[in-house]
Structure formats: structure tokens, C-alpha cells
Specification:
Blueprint: E1 8-13, H1 18-22, H2 26-29, E2 34-40, E3 45-51, H3 54-62, E4 72-77, H4 83-100, E5 104-105, H5 120-137, H6 145-149, H7 152-155, H8 164-178, E6 184-189, H9 195-206, H10 223-235, E7 241-244, H11 248-259, E8 269-270, E9 280-285, H12 301-310, H13 320-327, E10 328-335, H14 348-356, E11 360-365, H15 374-386, E12 400-404, H16 407-421, E13 424-428, E14 445-447, E15 450-452, E16 471-472, H17 474-477, E17 482-489, E18 493-496, E19 501-504, H18 512-515, H19 521-535, E20 539-547, H20 550-557, E21 562-563, E22 573-575, E23 582-587, H21 588-595, E24 605-608, E25 619-623, E26 638-643, E27 653-657, E28 670-681, E29 686-694, E30 705-708, E31 716-724
Parallel strand pairs: 3-5, 6-10, 6-11, 7-8, 7-9, 9-10, 12-20, 12-21, 13-16, 13-17, 17-20, 23-25
Antiparallel strand pairs: 1-4, 2-3, 2-4, 14-15, 18-19, 22-24, 23-24, 25-26, 26-31, 27-28, 27-31, 28-29, 29-30
Helix pairs in contact: 4-5, 8-10
């Protein structure tokens, strides 16, 4: 150990003379725990391990059919190492060397350590980083940890530690593969629950020789699991398998990953139509909710029809799920109905039929892996989009969720996150046509003074050089992990404050394939919400949101922190039932009717008063529309009023009603204005000669309303303005 390092990395020829070479080093020879790397530059293969008896372990490896083809060993030792530390460093080396891609690892993917121990984060992670830098210095590895962490090869590597529910799912899948009475497994799991990772893990497991598994650290609790693995390898020694990925871009990405993994091949990653070319022992389908039927397929119609003909099927009466069923002995389908986004996707009832079959096993993945906000963020997003009445303010603990009122500021934030972490991308819903597809000089998305283009490539867009300056869509991001997703909600999605529901505008939705052949407005509504939920679950570290529609933006602002260059408006809390500090909230037309004893709607909502407002039972709230009072009351403001019970009104802002009023903003018989009057005073009495209702507007086109004589007979003051709530 030298140069201030807490460890040593020594290189030796991998042969029977190793014992003589290391016998003078107590940390390499004398039963001290260490980590080692076997490698060969010519065949570009390596093996990573740990041991407390290096000589015996190397002797055993030299007898192994493939490991003895490796020519060099690097021993990594330290006086700080203990068994827990070496197991952890071994696991990290396997993960990051697999992601580095210089070597294809001979390691199996079972038994990677994932346990806490003393000083794991404070000491040993830093030691690992120093070991990694030293390995780069010596040419054993090539890329930085940060670069690898952002790579698809690392994210979709089969060398992962599975969660408890992933392990339980793996166990059940393995049992189905051994059960001759079972054929299908339908694995439910939302975005980010590790469906793709589990699929690739299982694929690698089934394509690894039994001799390459490291069962040495498995205890009694894992005994049944080890038995299952051995039974699987006996039943499927060399299985013919396919990983079916319906989306072409993601399929090409996973094929690149398979190319770098020992025992796997990019040819194993196929599209659904390719399954019709032959029979398979086992087929795994990632994103099976995107399997297609013969509806709005565009250029894919021809491929679909040819595949159907190979199967002896009538194209209009078949689908890709049926092909997979017929071409596989076992089918593992990873499914999330809320990621179905267009009419060509196979309908849910087809999967429901599959579940009715006794040969189908069903299981669920629940743990959220992608977003650091975890299940709290996922639940919040589902309430915000699908169940607005249940939404509540989201306070992220470890997730960067922000709502922007200016697109330019969100773009600046994304550019900064790209510099800090990489993989920060703009994504939008289909609210703009793709004009730049035919003419690259044109812009597609224009908001205020911002001009943007859709993604210029459909293949692996998130990793393309120009991605940071473009806007991706659902088709170029579904299945991918980002560090930050900045989502633009277009004008095809709206919020109705009266019904408290999210609505969609079909005319503003520009994915022709996504709206042709939809059976109902509700179906299109579900597709659009599924798109936004899916893209809002791409960001590991955070999600930024900009909303074009003002009503939807105001709805989101009630629950998400707003980033604004302007002073942020306070939010107000609505309630369907009265509470101790709530006041009735009326549309101003309803309020006028209410206080004049006329019939009003039974559906009254309530506003919970902020803590700094003193409550009394004669308060009510109304929304004020128009600009006649915009010096005091901005258009659209929700204002607090006190029911008028007598006394002078002169100089006060009042809500009044009269059949002779025609308000300039909305033409109604009610208005909100500053009150003034002229009185005729007698010896013992007085009466109004005329009442003047004055606008307080920056627009000088508004004129006072004057009432006199008979106009005063049905004039009524309803309430006195107290303050603007929002």
C-alpha cells in the first residue's frame, strides 16, 4: 500500500505459480479477506470474486473450463478489509464492471451481497471509489462511476440485487416454469417497479451454467431457492428463449445490453412479429400492455399481416398476445394497464381472459425503484390525475417535484440538472403536430416566445447528442430511466373546477394513431392520462412540470410547490362539507340569488379560511370575473365578503344586486363596485337621490353605474368586500 491509498492492487499471471508470487504478502497469502479480478484482454472476459484463502480459490479456478482461459489476476487487499467489506466491494465491482462494458463477466447473477454493516457508507464506499479510480488508472476499467450510473448497460444489467417482492416474484415464476400444469405468468407492476430488471435477471439466470453460480454465501433460508435453480437448470439446460419488447426504440436499447452480457445475445431480444418465426421454450414479454392488435398500425400493418399469415390467422381476428401464446411453452408477461396509451394496444379484456385460464399464475410488484419519491409520489400522482377529489398537498422528502409558471425557467432548470447529473430531458404530451419531421427548419412547439422541436430521432433518443435541446414524447421515453423529467402538459388536457375532474380536448390532441378508432371519449381520456402518468414517472431524482392550460395549472398549484418569478399566490383549500373554519363559496351569480331568497343550486362548496383570517359565521366567498375592479381585485380572484347587515356603505367595495344593473364584464344584474351615494335630507328623514357604483380599473373604458328614482326600488347590498383570498 502506497501513495496514501488504504489498499493495494497487485497484478500477477494467473497460473500455478501464484502461490510463490504472493507468499511474502500477508494480506494476499495468510487467510486475509480480499477481492480479486481474473481477466484476459484478448477474449475481453473477466471474473470477479472474493475470498479469505486466495491460493485455494485460484487453484480451484484454474480447474474450471472457462476461468482457466483467463490470464491475469489482480488481487485487491487492505488491512481494513473484513468479510462484510469484501463481499460489498465484490458486489460493487461486478455491478460497475458489467456497466463499464470493457469485459463480459463470467459471473452468474445470483448471490450478490446487499447488506448493511459498520461504516459501509462512511468508509467502504469511499474506499471502493478509490479502488475504481486506481483500476481506471491501470486500464482495467474505463469509465467513471457517474458515467456508468447513467448508462443503459448499468441500469438494465442482470447483476442486480432484487427486492423482497421481486425475489418473491422470481420464486413464483420459477415454480411455474417447473410446473407442467402452468403456462403463463402475468406480472402486474406500475412504472418503476422493476419489471424490466426482473425480466433481464431471470433471462440471465436461465442462460448461465450451473457451475458459474456462486452459492457459497447462501444460507439455510436460501436452501429451497438453490434447489429450485438446480431443478430449473436440469429441466432447461439450454432453453430457447426470447425477450419480446413491443417498442422498437427500447428493444434496440436492450439488444445493446444483451450484447455486452456473457451468455446473452442481441438476437434474443425480438419484436412480437418475430415470434411467429419459430417455437420457444420460454418467452418473456416486457411492456406487454403495448402488444398490438390490427388497429391504426401505420407502416406496421404489412408486418402484422405477414406475421398473421405465418400463423395461419386472419389478420383482423388475431393479435400479438395470441401469437406469443401459441409459439411458447411458457410465457412470462410483464403488464401495467395504466401504461396502455393508444387504440392499437391490446385491450385489457384480452388479459382478463388470460387470467381466467387455470394455467395462468398472477403476481404483483409493488415496490417503487425508479423515483426517489417512492410509493408516496406514485400514489400522489395517481390521485392528482385519476382521483382529483382525493388529492392533497405533496411535500417531497427526497424528491425534487416542482411546478413552473414560466416554461423558460423550467428549461433553464433542466439545462442545469443536465450539467449536474446528466439525463435531464424535456418531455411533452401530444398537443402539437410534428411539423419538423418533414421540414427540420420548422419548430413544433411554440409557447410564448419559446420555440422547440420534437425529438429528431426515434431510436434511443434519451441518449442522443441533441436530446437536451429537443422534446421527447411517450414513444421515445417509455421504459427508459432519466435523472430528471421536465414534463410539458399541453392544451389537450384541462381541469373543470365545477366537476372537479380532469377533462381532455380531442381537437388539441395530435397523435392521429392515438385517437383514431377510440370507442369513446372516456377511452381517449384514459389514454391521455396514462401518457402523462407514465412520463411523470421517468425521473429518478425529480420531475419538473409546466402546464399550458390555466385551469389545470391552478389545480396543480394547490398541491405542488410553484416556482415563480412573481410573488407566489397563496393557495386555498376547498371542501365539499362545512368545517369549523369554512365559509360558503358561491359563483357570484348564485350568491346574488342566495341573498335575495331566490332558488340556488344545492351543490354548495366551502373554502377553509387561512389561519390569519378571523372567522365569523356571516362570511362568504365568491369568484370575481372581469377587469372593472382590477386595481384592487384581479380578474378571476376568489374574494372574501361579509354579509351586509346595515350601516354606511360609502367608500366601501360592495357586492350589490338590482334588476336595472347590467354589469359591463358579464352583463348580469349583479356587480362588485365601490359604493357612493347622494342623499336628500329632510327635517327628520333622509333618502337616496342616487347611488353611484364606481369601477376601480386600469382600463379607463369602464364607467360608473348610476341608479336613481325607480332604479332604487329593488336595489340590494349583498355583501361588503373584505379581502382577496387568492
Amino acid at each position: 500500500m502506497s501513495d496514501g491509498l488504504k489498499f493495494a492492487i497487485n497484478k500477477y499471471p494467473f497460473n500455478n505459480g501464484l502461490g510463490r508470487s504472493v507468499q511474502s504478502n500477508i494480506y494476499e497469502y495468510d487467510n486475509w479477506p480480499l477481492v480479486y479480478i481474473l481477466s484476459d484482454e484478448k477474449i475481453c472476459e473477466a471474473y470477479v470474486g472474493e475470498t479469505a484463502d486466495s491460493i485455494s480459490r485460484m487453484t480451484k479456478h484454474l480447474q474450471h473450463e472457462r476461468k482457466r482461459n483467463l490470464t491475469t489476476v489482480h488481487l485487491i487487499s487492505s488491512e481494513l478489509f473484513n468479510k462484510s467489506a469484501t463481499l460489498d466491494i465484490e458486489a460493487n465491482l461486478i455491478r460497475y464492471m458489467a456497466g463499464d462494458g470493457k469485459y463480459r463477466l463470467q459471473n452468474g447473477n445470483l448471490g450478490l451481497a446487499n447488506h448493511n454493516f459498520y461504516q459501509r457508507k462512511d468508509v467502504y464506499w469511499n474506499i471502493f471509489r478509490e479502488i475504481w479510480d486506481e483500476l481506471r488508472k491501470n486500464g482495467i476499467t474505463t469509465q467513471s462511476i457517474e458515467t456508468i450510473s447513467n448508462s443503459d448497460l448499468f441500469k438494465y444489467s442482470p447483476y442486480k440485487n432484487l427486492s423482497k417482492d421481486q425475489l418473491e416474484g422470481l420464486y413464483q415464476i420459477m415454480e411455474v416454469l417447473l410446473d407442467d400444469q402452468k403456462k403463463n405468468v402475468l406480472v402486474h407492476g406500475g412504472a418503476g417497479t422493476g419489471k424490466t430488471v426482473l425480466a433481464i435477471f431471470l433471462f440471465k439466470l436461465l442462460n448461465t451454467d450451473l457451475a458459474d453460480f456462486n452459492f457459497t454465501e447462501f444460507g439455510e433460508r436460501e436452501k429451497d431457492f438453490v434447489t429450485l435453480v438446480k431443478q430449473l437448470k436440469a429441466k432447461y439446460p439450454h432453453p430457447k428463449m426470447a425477450l419480446v419488447v413491443p417498442m422498437a426504440s427500447f428493444r434496440k436499447t436492450l439488444a445493446k445490453v444483451f450484447k455486452k452480457v456473457k451468455g446473452l445475445s442481441p438476437k434474443m431480444v425480438v419484436g412480437p412479429s418475430e415470434v411467429t418465426n419459430g417455437k420457444y421454450d420460454i418467452v418473456l414479454v416486457d411492456e406487454s400492455h403495448r402488444l398490438r392488435r390490427r388497429v391504426v398500425l401505420g407502416s406496421y400493418f404489412n408486418y402484422f399481416d405477414q406475421a398473421a399469415q405465418r400463423m395461419g390467422k386472419i389478420p383482423e381476428e388475431t393479435n400479438e398476445l395470441e401469437w406469443i401464446q401459441e409459439q411458447s411453452n411458457k410465457a412470462i408477461l410483464f403488464y401495467d394497464r395504466q401504461q396502455s396509451i393508444k387504440p392499437s394496444d391490446i385491450r385489457q379484456d384480452e388479459f382478463d381472459k388470460l387470467l381466467q385460464q387455470p394455467s395462468t399464475q398472477e403476481l404483483r410488484l409493488k415496490t417503487q425503484f425508479r423515483v426517489l419519491g417512492g410509493e408516496d409520489y406514485v400514489n400522489f400522482l395517481e390521485q392528482l390525475l385519476y382521483r382529483p377529489g382525493e388529492a392533497s398537498h405533496y411535500t417531497p422528502k427526497s424528491y425534487d417535484l416542482k411546478l413552473f409558471d414560466k416554461l423558460s425557467e423550467m428549461i433553464d432548470a433542466v439545462q442545469q440538472r443536465e450539467k449536474e447529473y446528466g439525463l435531464a430531458r424535456l418531455i411533452a404530451g401530444y398537443a402539437w403536430p410534428w411539423k419538423s419531421k418533414k421540414d427540420s427548419s420548422l419548430f413544433d412547439i411554440e409557447i410564448d416566445d419559446i420555440q422547440l422541436r420534437w425529438n429528431q430521432t426515434s431510436t434511443d433518443w434519451v441518449n442522443s447528442k441533441t436530446a437536451i435541446d429537443e422534446v421527447g414524447c411517450i414513444h421515445t421515453t417509455q421504459g427508459y430511466d432519466l435523472n430528471y423529467a421536465a414534463v410539458i402538459f399541453g392544451n389537450e388536457i384541462d381541469y373543470n373546477p365545477e366537476t372537479q375532474q380532469i377533462e381532455v380536448n380531442k381537437s388539441a390532441y395530435h397523435d392521429k394513431a392515438g385517437k383514431t378508432s377510440v370507442r369513446s371519449e372516456q377511452e381517449l381520456h384514459d389514454y391521455i392520462l396514462n401518457i402523462y402518468k407514465t412520463i411523470c414517472l421517468r425521473g429518478i431524482r425529480g420531475t419538473y412540470i409546466y402546464v399550458c392550460n390555466p385551469r389545470l395549472r391552478a389545480y396543480f398549484a394547490q398541491y405542488i410547490e410553484m416556482v415563480s418569478s412573481q410573488p407566489q399566490k397563496p393557495t386555498i383549500q376547498f371542501s365539499d362539507l362545512p368545517t369549523e373554519r369554512s365559509v360558503p363559496f358561491y359563483d357570484v351569480k348564485v350568491a346574488a340569488g342566495y341573498f335575495t331568497g331566490e332558488q340556488v343550486s344545492d351543490e354548495i362548496r366551502y373554502i377553509v379560511l387561512p389561519e390569519d383570517v378571523q372567522y365569523s359565521d356571516d362570511l362568504f366567498a365568491c369568484q370575481v370575473i372581469g377587469n372593472s375592479m382590477n386595481k384592487i381585485i384581479p380578474d378571476g380572484s376568489v374574494c372574501l365578503f361579509k354579509r351586509y347587515a346595515g350601516g354606511s356603505r360609502k367608500g366601501l367595495i360592495t357586492l350589490v344586486s338590482s334588476s336595472n344593473i347590467q354589469d359591463p364584464d358579464h352583463g348580469g344584474r349583479y356587480t362588485i363596485k365601490e359604493y357612493d351615494s347622494h342623499k336628500a335630507v329632510g327635517e327628520e328623514t333622509w333618502q337616496h337621490e342616487r347611488i353611484i357604483l364606481r369601477p376601480l380599473s386600469h382600463d379607463l373604458g369602464y364607467e360608473p353605474i348610476e341608479l336613481a328614482d325607480d332604479d332604487l326600488l329593488n336595489f340590494k347590498v349583498i355583501g361588503i368586500f373584505k379581502k382577496v383570498l387568492i
